[in-house]
Every structure is written in structure tokens, then in C-alpha cells.
From TrEMBL:
GO terms for cellular component: cytoplasm. It is an enzyme of class 2 (transferase). The keyword Membrane does not apply. The active site is at E182. This is 3-methyl-2-oxobutanoate hydroxymethyltransferase. Catalyzes the reversible reaction in which hydroxymethyl group from 5,10-methylenetetrahydrofolate is transferred onto alpha-ketoisovalerate to form ketopantoate. The keyword Transmembrane does not apply. Pfam families: Pantoate_transf. Its EC number is 2.1.2.11. It comes from the Bacteria. Pathway: Cofactor biosynthesis; (R)-pantothenate biosynthesis; (R)-pantoate from 3-methyl-2-oxobutanoate: step 1/2. One of its GO terms (biological process) is methylation. 3-methyl-2-oxobutanoate binds at D44, S45, D83, K113.
């Protein structure tokens, strides 16, 4: 399986290809993505995508553990990281360790991701020094929606740009092995990628990041409304409705099931 040191070592290797990361929440999804991805992220975006919540704030550690374990069971090649949900790490580095260790023990994932910059540096250092690899997440941090007020891109003015850059540097210096940069102006993402010594993984950031991540359901076209940074590679919603429409019509016209799908005594 892809390891944390191998991912970390992609930085500064001029031959290295960009890291490929996608979210996964279920066993079957993980099986289908695994061969193509370096990293799978069990994102707390599952709150929106799977549970229909309107933010990631209500996501619980039990949700993350249940889906994390399923994704580890469905993968064998990609490195698996599980998001720490809101409320499970901010209070203190000790609380963060207790919850992060529980996530690793109960899922089999090899790393956790948490949102925040300078305010989380001490926690990241504490976890890393005690055997828990951490991915940082700066820029647009959805768990802070109640403070931010909207999901618009960050770093539009000087002060915001300086804050995102300082956050990124703090996370890298604290010992994170990779950094997700979400929803920032391209030039800020480029400045971060040039100035930190760990791989940056962009989402709504820049093509020059050391890797890219998207929410799988978004790139597969399962949702009507997606952020500007999503490229849709398929129309899965359309294909699903077509299949379900055909099934419903066949049930109603009694053309399903047929002999092929029916048990009968032999002879
Ligand atoms: O929860 C998530 O899916 C994420 C990615 C968008 C980076 O944090
Ligand atoms: Na997340």
C-alpha cells in the first residue's frame, strides 16, 4: 500500500507525477477508485454528500469511523486518510490525540486530516510526534462556515492572502506530511506550493499544486449544483435515472421479472 513517507517524498522530486486523490465513503466506491488513486480521503464532506446535511458541522466521529473502516476494507493500494470532524480536535492537543488514535485504531487508515492553520500547529506537532501522520487543510475550511458566512474562495484581499500563507507555513513547519489547499486564488496556492516543503493537494487552488483532490460524487456528475472548481467527468445522475426509469416501467408493465430471473423446478 502507498505509505505516508512515499507521499511526503513526492515533494522535491522533479520526476514525480502529481498526486491523485479522491474522496471515498463506501467499500464499493473505494474498490473502484483504488487502482487509479495514490490517496483516498474519507472526507467529512460525507455529511453533505451521504447524509444530506447542509454543512459538515454536525458530522460525528462515529460516522467518520464507520465510513473510514469501509474504505480501508475496499482498498489495497491507495493510502487512506480520514477527516477529523468538527469538535473532535480543536479543544486541545490531548483531545485531538485521543480521537485521532481512535480513528486510526478503528478504521485501519494511516493518517488523519484536520482543518486550520496557525491555531492547529501545536496539535499537528503533538500528533505527529506520537505516531499519527497529519494532513493539513487551509484556505476555505468548511467546518468554519459559521465564522466565514459563505463558501466563497479565500485570499481575495491582502490580509486574507497573508493569513492563508501564514497558515500553510505553520502547518508545514508543525510536521504535517501534506497540505490540502481549498478554494483560494491561484497565485496564493502557487506561492504556498513554492514555499512549503511538503506536497500541496489542491481543490479549487492551482494546476501547479503537487496533487489534486475532488469529491468523487461531484466529478462523476451525481449533483446538479457543484462549485466552479469541479470538472464533471460523467453524468452519473443521468445514467442512474435512466436505469431506474426503465426498471419502474418494466415492473409496471409486468415485463420484469422474466423467465431468466425466476426460479422454477427443473424439467
Ligand atoms: O471533506 C472533504 O471531502 C475534503 C476535501 C474536499 C478536501 O476535505
Ligand atoms: Na473535509
Amino acid at each position: 500500500r502507498m505509505t505516508v513517507p512515499k507521499i511526503r517524498a513526492r515533494k522535491g522530486d522533479p520526476e514525480a507525477e502529481p498526486l491523485v486523490m479522491l474522496t471515498a465513503y463506501t467499500m464499493r466506491q473505494a474498490q473502484l477508485l483504488d487502482a487509479h488513486c495514490d490517496m483516498l480521503l474519507v472526507g467529512d464532506s460525507l455529511g453533505n454528500v451521504i447524509y444530506g446535511l447542509d454543512s459538515t458541522v454536525p458530522v460525528t466521529i462515529e460516522m467518520m469511523i464507520n465510513h473510514g473502516a469501509a474504505v480501508v476494507r475496499g482498498s489495497w493500494h491507495a493510502q487512506v486518510t480520514v477527516d477529523m470532524p468538527f469538535g473532535s480536535y480543536e479543544e486541545s492537543k490531548e483531545v485531538a490525540f485521543r480521537n485521532a488514535s481512535r480513528i486510526l485504531k478503528e478504521t485501519g487508515a494511516s493518517a488523519v486530516k484536520l482543518e486550520g492553520g496557525e491555531a492547529m500547529a501545536e496539535t499537528i506537532h503533538f500528533l505527529n510526534a506520537r505516531g499519527i501522520p497529519v494532513i493539513g487543510h487551509v484556505g476555505l475550511t468548511p467546518q468554519a462556515i459559521n465564522l466565514l458566512g459563505s463558501y466563497r474562495a479565500r485570499g481575495r484581499d491582502e490580509a486574507e492572502a497573508a493569513k492563508v500563507l501564514a497558515d500553510a507555513r505553520a502547518v508545514a513547519e508543525a510536521g504535517a506530511f501534506a497540505l490540502v489547499i481549498e478554494g483560494v486564488m491561484e497565485e496564493i496556492a502557487d506561492e504556498i506550493t513554492e514555499s512549503v516543503d511538503i506536497p500541496t493537494i489542491g481543490i479549487g487552488a492551482s494546476a501547479k499544486c503537487d496533487g489534486q483532490v475532488l469529491v468523487t460524487e461531484d466529478m462523476l456528475g451525481l449533483f446538479e449544483r457543484v462549485p466552479r472548481f469541479v470538472k464533471r467527468y460523467h453524468d452519473l445522475a443521468g445514467e442512474m435515472s435512466d436505469a431506474v426509469e426503465r426498471y419502474a416501467a418494466e415492473v409496471r408493465s409486468r415485463s420484469f421479472p422474466t423467465d431468466e430471473q425466476t426460479y422454477r423446478p427443473k424439467g
